[in-house]
Amino acid sequence: MRNYLQQVKTYVLVASLMMFSIAAAFAQGREVTGTILDATLKDPLPGVTVLIKGTTRGTNTDLDGKFKLTVQPGDQVLVVSFVGFSTQEITIGNQSIFNIELAEDIQSLQEAVVIGYGTQDRKEITSAVASVSSEQFNRGNFPNPTQLLQGKVAGLNVTRPGGNPNAAPELRLRGISSFGAAQSPLIVLDGVIGASLDAVDPNDIESFDVLKDASAAAIYGTRGAAGVILITTKKGTSKKGISSVTINTFGAAEQPTNFIPVLSPEQFVERGGLDFGSRTDWRREVTQTALNGTVNASITGGFENTSFLASVNYRNNDGIVKGTNREQLNTRFNLNHGALNNRLRMNLNLSYSNIDETNVNGEAVRYATIYNPTAPIFENTEESQRFGGYFQRQLFDFFNPVALINQQRFTNEIAAAIYSYRVEFDITDNITVASQFSQDRFTRLGSNFWSRQDFQTGFGRFGQAGQNMETKTQSIWNGTIRYQNEIFDGMDFTFLLGGETQIFSERNNNVEVARFLFDVGPNNLEAGGLRFGPGTNLSSFAERSVLNSLFARTSFNYNNTYFLNASLRAETYSGFGRDNQTGFFPAVSLGADFTQIFDMGIFNQFKPRASFGVVGQLPPSATLALGVFGNGNRIPLNPDQPINSVFVGPRQLSNPNPQLRWETTREFTVGLDYGIMNGKITGQIDYYQRTISDLLFNVEVPVGAPNEFAPGNFYTASNVWANIGELNSGGFEFLAQLNGTKLGVVDWIPSFNFTIYQRARFGNIGVGSIQLPEIRQGIPGAPGQNNNPIVWNREGERIGDFWGPRMLGLTENGEYILSGENPSEFERLGNGLPVGDFGFSNTFIYKNWDLNFLLRGSWGHMIYNSFRGFYENADGASLTWNSVLTRNTPTSPLVTSTPTFSDLYLERGDFMRLDNLQIGYNVPTTSAFINNLRLYAGVQNLFTITQFSGVDSEVRWQDTENPFEPNPLAPGIERRNTYFLPRTWTAGLTITFK
What we know:
Distance between the termini: 31 Å
């Protein structure tokens, strides 16, 4: 795909120029005006949405119920909608003045919200559920779909510290939900449970529905403990003939920002650093302004009882660090068909994604900051020719960052495919049966390469290369029967009964070899002379598990006033211990709309609700209950035949635990859905308390002691997976949106949400004789800080507490004066998890112009600034590296002690960031072929207000020192390989053809 990058960029440029030329030729449309009234009270309705059907062009009524709108030749229908009233479609014709009356319709509160295995009218929702439609999405260059939700949902934190284009965002719904199993919400894509986000492009998404509390997520049983995000993709139209062809294309330029200040070459030499005679800005040498492009094309259409959507999405994202790239191609086809007078409904969804990732060694980012600024990039000596001409020196922890980028290569080729088929049939007007089969296939081919001349890894091994193949397949079949009827006057009743089978399979093959005669790369591994020993690996595994489920849900709605929902799911999982393979997950919720009972004054909706639910959590592997065996040493059984008699002995990696079971989350939520002044202000308020018990964790045990989980047996390995401990947490969530607000002639639609967390606390940590009064994690690392974990998780205390000495001051010579020298004297210094998050979204509309921006932030979290913790001191041992000099670095005097962790290097991470801003213009057009043309430009990460002096003040929910095993028990650490933060400028156009 990369061979066509230049052609694609050329195409985007030519297409953009053509569209600008077309736009310049279009004539102005005409203006229509109107007034919208309540059909019953004859009062004006402010905030009513008036749209040109099939476009995004529209406006809202003012406080007097009036609107103005420019229509173009070819515009045929006005769509008039407002919460609590029936939507109307008005033919435009030759009219210029419209007087419209909207009838109040309690059914209009029945906006369909996607829930587990179906939809439910919004007015009947009694759990904590948030919905975000495509009109509310963040706007900008977002390769990952969940970035569309950033700052939009109270309780949902979406972060991506740094700006690596290949790094997936971290998602946390209502804080920490586990530390031994999955912490991110379950993704359900068009009914496909646990779908890969790589299988959908942000352009193809119609809406998100977020199931925040356990009562809403309990229908997913052991997979819903971290919450559920339901993604609905766009569909076609039932209108005969092709309705629209849409092309959206934009270009983006990413600039590196927020470099940590370091000493200049002159300052470095003056402090005593070794002068190699050059002057090199290493950050500028390894970074670039990345020029990227995106093209999306989709066609929606339909004919009698059939609708379809087909789309192709291409994205190319170079990183701001040279050598990084993400190139992605997504294709999607959705088909819906109705037969037998629409009693039979069929849906087919097909998607395929191909992703090529190129990464660099994260250490190149670190060395670009702290490498000797007087060193040259290249040198022409006999010694340097062994390293490809790059400057290198035999010093500890000292590698040329430009060489790391150019002499190492790490790639991933990813293919993700999902296909699902769903059929529904109305046996009667009240009974519907449905069945869906889906399969999600994910394949990743990773390759690693270290040149023979690579000083860090490849030089001593004459080069090293490897490949890793990973395949995952998830097959799901479910069937449901739904009964819906008015069982007596005013009482609507819905009952859903279903069964489901989920089959998971995974395979992995890994090969690494060393000692190459030439640099042949990772695609000729047999050229490596060494198959065993350091730098080599040969491994493979496969596992399969099955999750069988039965579930039921019932809903009662009495007079559109009182609502009750209840569900129960029973699941059996093959990966649990034989004594605990089946679990039950109940939920109940209720609510009432008081405005249907009392005169609530300014409230047009006042619906308090309460809910309770139980959800579970699957283990991270299906084999943990069995006790895992691996491969030991190669043993020649016959010394006279050292080759033919070699066998690999087994080695037990963990002990069996037949009592292993799911984690259990019990959550209680009370909330309020409200609307004020005829829907001028709408929102939600929630308070929740959560208890998580039977936490899955890998604990150390004494070899030879009795195995209390398998009586009569003994521990034959040093660890066992067990259910230990308890977490208690809670929080408060608030959402408010203003609808139809006027600032003079400008329509303003603001939305504000915030979350206040009651940080998770450990209950008892242990089970039986295994008791862990604390779990210490978060080791800063080398040099010199390999034995001092800085995050202590203690029983009865909060997860993520930093412990260490306090800095009381400095001596005249710049030496530490600390409050304690050994761990028994350490103090609690702060916590790495946030107290709260907020998001403030704004949309401004003036005639054909619109402006959108999002302010987002978090507060209350501390961050360990690793760059300061290792590289700001002026001690003699640190003179190998450059020194950082931030606004928080002591300078009078300079610190001369050897770097040691204390509160000196902890900083407040509170921040407020203008995440994205976009301005757009809907070009008036008289073309017979073009329905809508929108030009737009924007910027992401325009500014951040924070006291933190590191790379990025984002919340670190887990420690990513080992990216393959992130650690949620060590939050709040900014590691030294954190990718630089980009500022992204975009410009593009969207054009819809009739």
